[in-house]
Amino acid sequence: MSYRALITGASAGLGTEFARQLAALGVDLVLVARDAARLERLAHVLRSRYGVDVEVLAADLTASAALEAVAGRLSAEERPIDILINNAGFGVYAGFEASDITEERRLHELLSWVPLRLAHAAVPGMLERGSGWILNVASAAAFLPSGSYGSAKAAAVSLSRSLSARYRASGLRVTALCPGLLATEFHERMGEDHLPALPSIAWADTGRVAREGLRALYRGKPVLVSDWRYRLALPLRALLPDRLLERLGTTNDPGLR
Fold it and tell me: Which first-to-last residue range defines the signal peptide (predicted)?
């Protein structure tokens, strides 16, 4: 049986890694991002290397019409989507008191509303078919006092836990993947050109994080903190006051993916 996955934010970073790993497993793909040219280049590589079917759907998910077009693809009965990976995201570098409120709204729409809308489009068909998988890429920041970015990611975690509890018995598995620092274009797009130099051990491997996320989704684990360094470190947050934890991040986004 052939499966088909729709991946948002597929043109770079973790989204591209999800696409590569799923293509290697023989999963057909629908790639979603704003940059059509980058998506087409990735699609060509995946078709050539793995022989899978790859659709390209260029869309700015913070634009209502584009979001509804992607939602329509998820609810389509023809060539149904078995796996939804909500990965698209960005961060706002300015502190909360100085940030642009329009950017704050875009951030919450992309990180919180978009995963909800796309899951809402995907769930009915998955339930009708008796199976489906939804992976929401959240962040370790969801468990820290890390400004509006963390609050938006916390919403993705809460949504994932709720859908997992409600629909697992019906064959639908939902996971929130919570990475820490990843060496991708994420920080560059924020304009974070003065991100402090950190030792290599602080950065998680994108390939490993994607593998852990897909494995957790297959097993039906509602929440996964990835990778092992962050699983070890996060319990320490209970020992520290919120004021200290908040100061560890000097911006709206403390640097966690």
Answer: none
> 62-101: per-residue pLDDT in tens?
999 999 999 999 999 999 999 999 999 887 877 878 888 9
The whole-model pTM stands at: 0.85
Fold (CATH) for 4-247: Rossmann fold (3.40.50)
- Out of 149, 167, 218, 230, pick the active-site residue: 149
Residue in the structure block whose two tokens are 């869309």 = 59
Taking each helix axis from N to C terminus, what angle separates 147-167 and 114-129, rounded to the nearest 10 degrees? 10
| 132-137 sheet: strands from edge to edge | 54-58, 28-33, 4-8, 83-86, 132-137, 172-179, 223-226
Q: What is the pLDDT of residues 94-140, one digit of tens each?
A: 787 888 899 999 999 999 999 999 999 999 999 999 999 999 999 88
Q: 3 an active-site residue?
A: no
